[in-house]
Amino acid sequence: LPDKTDEAFTEHGWFRTGDLGYFDDNGELHVLGRLSTLIKTESGEKIQTEDVEAAYAEESAIREIGVLGEKGKLVALIVPDRASSDDGKDAVRKAIETASKRLPSHQRISDYAITPDALPRTRLGKIRRHRLAERYKEAKEGGEKAAAAQPMSVEEMSGEDRALLEDSSAQSVWELLAKRYRGKRLTPDTSPQFDLGIDSLEWLNLTLEIGESSGVELSEEAIARIETVRDLLREVTEGGEGEALDPLKNPDEVLDEKQKQWLEPLGPVAAGMARFLYAVNRVLMHLLCRVRGEGLEYLPQDRQWVLTPNHVSYLDPFAIAALLDWSQLRNTYWAGWTGIIFVNPLMRFLSRLGKILPVEPMRAARSSLAFGAIILKKKKNLVWFPEGERSPSGKLQEFKPGIGMLLDHFPTSVIPVFVHGTREALPPGKFFPRPHAIRVVLGKPVDAGELKRGGGDKKTSRVRQFSQRGNGGA
User: Fold this and answer.
1) Angle at 407 between CA 406 and CA 409, to 5 degrees
2) What CATH fold (topology level) applies to the domain 154-237?
3) Shortest CA distance to 207 belongs to which of 242, 175, 168, 236?
4) Which of 38, 92, 131, 140 could anchor a disulfide with 113, C-beta 3.0 to 4.6 Å?
5) Of 151, 145, 240, whose CA–CA distance to 189 is shortest?
6) Is pTM, for the whole model, over 0.85?
7) CATH number belonging to domain 251-470
8) Taking Cα atoms as reference points, which of 155, 144, 146 lies closest to residue 181?
9) What is the pLDDT of residues 398-453, one digit of tens each?
């Protein structure tokens, strides 16, 4: 085909091999991998799938593995080595957990499917990656249908597991998991990560609910040890790590020195740079997206406030910041996800200038709540995205319990915010915005008394009700 032939060569007649590489100062070529095997994650990390596959393939329980991207995350199709264990699924799970500990977080697979069939390959032994997604979907659907999507009955459990559930705290956590992950197969051997889909941010929210239901606070070290539901029940039975520090009463003691650096005031030079970047963002947002604010008069001038925006795009905070004046911004902190903040040194530097507080995934709930508590104790303003993540559909999701706990301890005026148009300007998976009108609507401030009088059994639910009301019930 003439068109395909033209695509295969440069205008100077060089053949496009599809390899990625660079020339060093000595003129030597270093090949980094294939363009066809490169995956870009949701946080912007570029991952060579062959490197990830090689790391997991070191485990004897894995005969073959093909890594692919799904919704900005790494997943894998795995062929187990049947000779390595009588229980192939259990052996693969342990192999994945072992290999994951050797890899940086952005190179770890978040989910996988097992297939008995060999991976599709070319005559040269290369994986046919264009067929992986279909094979992965088939294996995933087949595996889910094979298992009964309900909790294992106590009668089916071993004596050791039944003994665990005799503890009231463990029993309450088991019931919480059964309710929260309804429709999933739940057994003591269930993997929170791979079977229930509990990622680092979900751990943050689950830990809060475990604390509410059982009274047990799980430390970051305890969470790191958990590989199965059985491990979780054991940690709860043992009461976590002794007396855990309360992040709302003693937030300064929860954070380490490195984390506290994010709370230090900016120096004169950094403050000047921050003000310049704020001005640039304001100009760009008004020129490119014609950002328009409604209800800005509701922002209190004489007391602190908490903004609770919906979250549909990475552009949301930039749109909100473009509507605040410098006197407000200099006293405002933003809760941000470490997957974006720590992606590279430049992002860390810009996040520091923007007063973005990192949500530490493996700190359970404590460090995130501690950051928010310190800011509110200092009478500073806080922007907190209560959904905890971007909405996949663009509709308002359930709020995570963190915002309710903060407001219970620090009664503050809450201003619901709805951002419209950012999803169209910067859709999920895109990295460069396009011109599109953005509208930011601020609702009337809601004080602690109104929240207490609102409906719902938790303050988090009541905050969401006021947010829906401010957007016409969307």
Assistant:
1) 70
2) 1.10.1200
3) 236
4) 140
5) 151
6) no
7) 3.40.1130.10
8) 144
9) 777 778 888 888 989 999 999 999 999 998 878 889 999 999 999 998 875 565 45
